[in-house]
Amino acid sequence: MRFITALLATSLIGVTAAHAEMKLTSTDLTPGKPMADEQIFNGFGCSGKNISPDLAWSGAPEGTKSFAVMAYDPDAPTGSGWWHWSVFNIPADVSKIATGASGDKKLPEGVVEGRTDFGVSGYGGACPPAGDKPHHYQFTVYALSVDKLPLPDTAPAAMVGFYVRANTLGKASVEVTYGR
User: Fold this and answer.
1) How far is residue 148's CA from residue 90's CA, in Å, rounded to a whole number?
2) Which end of the chain is more exposed for a tag (fewer CB within 10 A), N or C?
3) Above 90 in pLDDT, residue 3?
4) For the CA atoms of 32, 36, 39, 44, what is the dihedral angle to 10 degrees?
5) How far is CA 81 from the centre of its chain?
6) pLDDT tens digit sequence for 25-67
7) How many C-beta atoms surround the C-beta of residue 180 within 10 A?
8) Which candidate, 86, 104, 105, places its Cα nearest to that of 49?
9) Would you place residue 155 in the very low, low, confident or very high pLDDT band (cuts 50, 70, 90)?
10) Residue 107: HSE in the Cβ half-sphere, 13 Å Cα cutoff
């Protein structure tokens, strides 16, 4: 009986370790809370600072060869949401992005920022229509099974999302809100 109990305990520990979940944290974004002015877009009637937030992740699954980060507003009145940021080809040994990395070019060598729905590459902060209920902004890091996605910085976020999802091993998200 002790042998069976020990075997069962060992197998449960192995299962738990194999299914450890990724975590995403940020000192700039508080889950469920409104975004700070620093991460709000500067344009389209918004007057934020448009600074990309810091992000840090842990718990990547075994076999992770690179990461991608995407920021998305599912509440945008477009019929397809709004892509605010896509960053890919982040090396597997990187586990954070610094505040302002998009605008200050602090991303690691070889990392690519795809085109947002603002029509440019790089971070584009929150800016929902005035009078709308607060929108939800989902920042997600994806652990990928490939070293690089074969996409240029002109790739639209929807295309980046297609490649990211096709190669995802694990993911973690932080969701914040913003309304005006």
Assistant:
1) 8
2) N
3) no
4) 100
5) 15
6) 999 999 999 999 999 999 999 999 999 999 999 999 999 999 9
7) 16
8) 104
9) very high
10) 21
How many residues are given for the chain?
180
Tokens of 166: 């096709």
Concatenate the DSSP letters of all residues of 29-55 into one string: --TTSBPPGGGB-EETTEE---PPPPE
Extract the tokens encoding 143: 């652990």
Q: Judge contact between 99 and 53, C-beta under 8 A.
A: yes
Q: Are 88 and 39 in contact (CB under 8 A)?
A: no
Residue with tokens 């209920």: 133
Amino acid at 58: S
For the beta sheet containing 66-73, the strands, ordered from the edge strand earlier in sequence to the opposite edge, are 112-113, 82-91, 66-73, 135-144, 168-178
Q: Structure pTM?
A: 0.88
Quick one: which of 93, 97, 96 has its CA closest to 65? 93
Q: Check if the beta carbon of residue 4 is closer than 8 Å to that of residue 87.
A: no
